[in-house]
Inverse folding.
C-alpha cells in the first residue's frame, strides 16, 4: 500500500488579539500567571464578521491555487463551534472555495478530538482510492465566561490539511492508541455560547487519557517512546503540553534530561502561545508551528501526536516527516499574518466578546471588519450570507 498523510497544511487566525498582560492588569493579577503559569501570551479574537466558516475558508484558500486542486473527493469539517444543528459548515466553505459538485461534505464533532478523527477517516478513504484527495478542515472559537479561570485560554483558529497518497509533508502511520470515557470535564449544551468547564478536573482527565491512549498505542504499534523524536499535543494552553510531555516521559522512564524532554515539544507551542486555544484546530496548528519553527531539519523524524477532546475521546498516533517538506509549507504567509495582527484594548475585547449574535431570527447586516479573505456579511431570514472580500 502506498503511504498516506498530510500533503499540504495551512492555518488562519483572526487579525485581532488581546495581550494577556492587558487581561491580567484589569484583573489586578500578576501577568506572569498567564505568561509563565499557563504559558500563554496572546489570545485571538474573531472580528465581528468572522466565524468558523470564514476562518475555515481563509485557512484552506492557499491549498486551491489552481483549478486542478479543486477536484477533491471529500471535505471533512471538524468543529465544536457549530453554527447550525443541521447543515454542515463545510457546505458554505465548498461554495466559497468553488469546489466541484461531486465533492462529499460532512461535519464531525467530539470536542477538540474531531479533527484527528477526520484525518484518520481521510487516510482510510485515500488508502482505498489512492488517486483521490480529501480536504480536512478544523475551525473553532474557544469562548469561556468572563472572569473565570478559562477566560485567559480563549482563542480562535482554523487549519486546513490536504490528505493524499504519497504525501509531501507527513506520512501517517496506520497504528493508533485510543481511549474513551464518559466524563463531564468540559461541555457546551446547545443553549449556551460558552463552555462549562471543570478546569482542574479537565487537566487530570487529559493526563489520564494520555497515559491510557499511549499504552494502547505502545501495544498496537512497533514504536516506543525513544523512536519518537518530537511530539505534538492538543494545546488548550502551552503549559498543559509541557506537563503532559513530562508525564509521558516519566511513564516511559525516559533517560533524557528535563531540557531535552522540553525541547521535543518547544517548536510546537509557539503559534499556540500567540493564538490561544483553537480547540479542534489546536493540535494541527501546533504541528504547523513545529514544522515552520524547528531549527533542525525534520526530514525522516518520527513525530508523536496526542489528540484530546473533552468528554472524552483521546488518540495517540505517529507519523514520519518527509524529505523536502519545507518546500510545501506556507511559513512566510503565516509569519506575515501573525506579525500584522492588531492588538485590542480591554474595552475593544469586551465589545467583540459581546458582539451581537441574533438568536430570535432578526435580520442583521454586519459591518466589514475582518482582514481575512471571506466574511459573514449578514443574516437574513435565518440564512447566513457569506461573501468573498
Ligand atoms: P487556574 O486554576 O486559575 O490556574 O486556571 P492556577 O491557579 O492553577 O494557576 C495555573 C498555573 O500558574 C499554576 O502552575 C500556578 O502555580 C501558576 P501549576 O501548579 O499548574 O504548575 N502561577 C504562576 N506562575 C508564575 N507566576 C505567577 C503565578 N501565579 C500562578 N505569578 C485552568 C487553570 C486550567 C483551571 C484554567 O485555565 C481553565 O479552566 N482552563 C480551561 C480548561 C482547560 O483548558 N483544560 C485543559 C485540559 S481539557 C482540554 O484540553 C480540552 C479543551 O481544549 C476543550 C475540548 O476538548 O474541546 C479545553
Amino acid at each position: 500500500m502506498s503511504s498516506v498523510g498530510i500533503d499540504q497544511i495551512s492555518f488562519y487566525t483572526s487579525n485581532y488579539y488581546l495581550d494577556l498582560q492587558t487581561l491580567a492588569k484589569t484583573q489586578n493579577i500578576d501577568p506572569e500567571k498567564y505568561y509563565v503559569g499557563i504559558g500563554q501570551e496572546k489570545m485571538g479574537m474573531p472580528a465581528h464578521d468572522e466565524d468558523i466558516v470564514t476562518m475555515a475558508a481563509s485557512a484552506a484558500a492557499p491549498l486551491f491555487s489552481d483549478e486542478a486542486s479543486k477536484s477533491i473527493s471529500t471535505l471533512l469539517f471538524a468543529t465544536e463551534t457549530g453554527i447550525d444543528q443541521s447543515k454542515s459548515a463545510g457546505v458554505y466553505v465548498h461554495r466559497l472555495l468553488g469546489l466541484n459538485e461531486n465533492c462529499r461534505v460532512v461535519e464531525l464533532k467530539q470536542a477538540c478530538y474531531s479533527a484527528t478523527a477526520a484525518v484518520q477517516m481521510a487516510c482510510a478513504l485515500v488508502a482505498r482510492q489512492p488517486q483521490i484527495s480529501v480536504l480536512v478542515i478544523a475551525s473553532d472559537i474557544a469562548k469561556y465566561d468572563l472572569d473565570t479561570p478559562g477566560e485567559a485560554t480563549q482563542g480562535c483558529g482554523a487549519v486546513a490539511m490536504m490528505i493524499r497518497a504519497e504525501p509531501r509533508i507527513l506520512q501517517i502511520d496506520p497504528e493508533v492508541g485510543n481511549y474513551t470515557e464518559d466524563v463531564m470535564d468540559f461541555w457546551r449544551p446547545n443553549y449556551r455560547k460558552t463552555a462549562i468547564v471543570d478546569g482542574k478536573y479537565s487537566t487530570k482527565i487529559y493526563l489520564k487519557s494520555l497515559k491510557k491512549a499511549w499504552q494502547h498505542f505502545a501495544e498496537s504499534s512497533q514504536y516506543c517512546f525513544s523512536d519518537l523524536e518530537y511530539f505534538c499535543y492538543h494545546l488548550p494552553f502551552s503549559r498543559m503540553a509541557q506537563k503532559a510531555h513530562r508525564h509521558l516521559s516519566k511513564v516511559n522512564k525516559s533517560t533524557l534530561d528535563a531540557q531535552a524532554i522540553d525541547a521535543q515539544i518547544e517548536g510546537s507551542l509557539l503559534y499556540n502561545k500567540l493564538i490561544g486555544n483553537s480547540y479542534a484546530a489546536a493540535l494541527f496548528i501546533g504541528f504547523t508551528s513545529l514544522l515552520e519553527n524547528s531549527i533542525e531539519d525534520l526530514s525522516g523524524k518520527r513525530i508523536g501526536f496526542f489528540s484530546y477532546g473533552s468528554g472524552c475521546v483521546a488518540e495517540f498516533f505517529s507519523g514520519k516527516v518527509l524529505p523536502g517538506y519545507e518546500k510545501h509549507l506556507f511559513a512566510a504567509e503565516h509569519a506575515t499574518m501573525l506579525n500584522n495582527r492588531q492588538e485590542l484594548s480591554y474595552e475593544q475585547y469586551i465589545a467583540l466578546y459581546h458582539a451581537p449574535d441574533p438568536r430570535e431570527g432578526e435580520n442583521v447586516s454586519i459591518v466589514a471588519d475582518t482582514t481575512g479573505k471571506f466574511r459573514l456579511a449578514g443574516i437574513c431570514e435565518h440564512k447566513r450570507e457569506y461573501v468573498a472580500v
Notes: The pocket of 3-hydroxy-3-methylglutaryl-coenzyme A is lined by residues 30, 32-33, 36-38, 80, 111-112, 149-150, 153, 185-186, 197, 199-200, 202-203, 206, 234, 236-237, 240, 277, 279, 308-310 (CB under 6 Å). The chain has a mean pLDDT of 96. The first helix runs from residue 20 to 27. The CA atoms of residues 28 and 55 lie 33 Å apart.
